Amino acid sequence: MTTHLNRRTALQGLAALGSAGLLGTSLAQSTKDAWPASLIKLIVPFPAGGPTDTASRIVGQKLAERLKQAVVVENRPGASGSIAALQVMKAEPDGYTLMMLATPTLLAPHLYKKAGYDTVKDFAPVATVYDLPIVVVVNPTQLPDVTDLRKLIANAKAQKNPLNYTSSGAGSFGHLSMELLKQMGGFDMQHVPYKGGVPAITDTIGGQVPVMYADLVAALPHIKAGKLRAIAVGSPQRVAMLPDVPTIAEQGFKGYDAVSWGGLLAPAGTPKAVVDRIAGEVRQILAEKETQEKLLHAGAIARFQDPAQMGQHLQQDYAKWGQLIRDKSIASE
Q: Rounded mean pLDDT of 103-130?
């Protein structure tokens, strides 16, 4: 009798556990299906008004319309985006906190000893959003004969003292990209770092520094005005904004590829179903001509990669530029 009762009790217990398991599965499915049930925060690691912020607001507005849920853009600048990255890393991995990653934030752990995060391990890639082309420009008055990259390198090699060039700062993507070019080309130039792209461009136009590796969005108005001369773009293909300016790869540096880019990240552990849902919406948003035109107006080129593709892109850039930073002993200010 006791054995019979124990067996019946055990069976009842298993049934209860099975029901609880089914209930748990049902609740998880319900939670997934209900997402998003509240507003989504999109953290931007730079101040309002720049290309990363503009791209975030363009995509954020479209996401809100498609998800029928508010998307609030929150600017958290500082330390090349490390402050924002730490906030997102520590957030609940529930799909309600996202960050618009930009290349400086991707590389900050290589440049700041106390960045506090690992770009590869601490986040879930969601989707790339844009490419931000960079361009080598010269002051046409200071270097009147330098009309292409070959002539710039010849000029640099002919100098008794290293030719100066500038960027938006020590450890900036323009700085890293020129160091890569110098390494591939076997020539030297002296980096003169500025704190920000605007003062660097101002002094390049003014003739204090004759060469700059600049974000195209910042340099384009001055190129069009004839105050700066564009001689090469860092991307593998020419860009629509400067169709007559050849790439660095076209000018003898096969395989050269330097493109600043941005994309959405979520905290590591965010459910795959939620990540895939956001990525699917972003794919459709970036396919819209209106979105592409708005991004282009901000100096960015729409570019979609799914979570797996973005993850591979992120890891490759993290390794490639990290190696250069170590080889050149580069640190951010």
A: 95
CA 276 to chain centre: 19
**DSSP-based three-state secondary structure for 1:** coil
What are all long-range contacts of 20-24, with beta carbons under 8 Å and residues at least 24 apart? none
Please list the residue range(s) of the chain that carry CATH number 3.40.190.150: 38-132+259-328
Q: Which residues contact residue 182 at a Cβ distance below 8 angstroms, ignoring those fewer than 6 apart?
A: 188, 189
Cβ atoms of 235 and 259 within 8 Å: the answer is: yes
Architecture of the domain spanning 134-251: 3-Layer(aba) Sandwich (3.40)
Helix or strand (DSSP H, E) at 289: helix 289-297
From CA 267, how far away is CA 241, in angstroms rounded? 35
- Which class for 286: exposed (0-12), middle (13-18), buried (19 or more C-beta within 10 A)? buried
Report how far Cα 217 is from the mean position of its chain's Cα atoms.
15
Task: Give the list of residues 6+ apart from residue 9 with CB closer than 8 angstroms, or none.
Answer: none
- Of 26-40, 196-210, 250-264, give the lowest mean pLDDT range: 26-40
- 265 phi, psi to nearest 5 deg: -120, 150
CATH 3.40.50.1820, domain 38-132+259-328, yes or no: no
Q: Cα dihedral angle (217, 86, 324, 148), rounded to 10 degrees?
A: 0
**CA–CA separation, 285 and 28 (whole Å):** 28
Q: Yes or no: say if 163 and 179 are a contact pair by the CB < 8 Å rule.
A: no
Q: What one-character DSSP code corresponds to residue 225? A: T
80: amino acid identity, one letter: S
Residues paired with 97 in a beta bridge:
41
Tell me the pLDDT tens digit for each residue of 80-95. 899 999 999 999 999 9
**CATH 3.40.190.10-classified regions of the chain:** 134-251
Pairwise CA distance, residues 157 & 227, whole Å: 25
Q: What is the pLDDT of residues 269-294, one digit of tens each?
A: 999 999 999 999 999 999 999 999 99
Q: Above 80 in pLDDT, residue 26?
A: no
